[in-house]
Amino acid sequence: MAADSGVALTTLKVDGGMTANGLLMQFQADVLDVPVVRPVVSETTCLGAAYAAGLAVGYWPNIEGLRANWKKSVEWKPTMSAAQRGKGFRKWKKAVKRSMDWTDADEEGNP
């Protein structure tokens, strides 16, 4: 993301059902080497729609007022060493490379 956007990732704010999985959130923090933060309201899709509607009709004065409503619930900090992270990334790339062309086009059901 940093390479594509030119913006360094310093924190990953997460939401949704998967954020209930603490092991997954810790893994994200370790792999990305940034803190992962879950808000008090973890299902923010509906909340975002409600905020947008409220902004449209003037219920909320501005976006800054909405930002004040956001509160941190849990934060996972990276614990993985750079060497361990690098080794895992190299192995992941190797696994992806090995999975390429896994099936043949002439097998039944494949185009």
What this model shows, in words?
The protein is mainly alpha-helical and 111 residues long. It has 5 helices and 3 strands, in the order H-E-H-E-H-H-E-H. It has helices spanning 2-5, 22-32, 44-56, 63-67, 82-99; strands spanning 12-13, 36-39, 72-76. A 3-stranded mixed β-sheet has the order 1-2-3. The protein starts with a helix and ends in a 12-residue tail after the last helix.
Approximately what portion of the residues adopt beta-strand conformation?
A: 5-15%
* Largest beta-sheet details: 3 strands, mixed
Low-confidence stretches: none
- Averaged pLDDT, please? 91
Could you give the distance between the termini? 33 Å
Secondary-structure element sequence? HEHEHHEH
- Order of strands, widest sheet: 1-2-3
Shape: extended
The portion of residues assigned to helices is 40-55%
Rg: 20 Å
| Number of helices in the DSSP assignment | 5
Structural class: mainly alpha
Q: How many β-strand runs?
A: 3
Q: Which helices and strands appear, and what pairs or packs with what?
A:
Elements (H helix, E strand, L loop, with lengths): L1 H4 L6 E2 L8 H11 L3 E4 L4 H13 L6 H5 L4 E5 L5 H18 L12
Parallel strand pairs: 1-2
Antiparallel strand pairs: 2-3
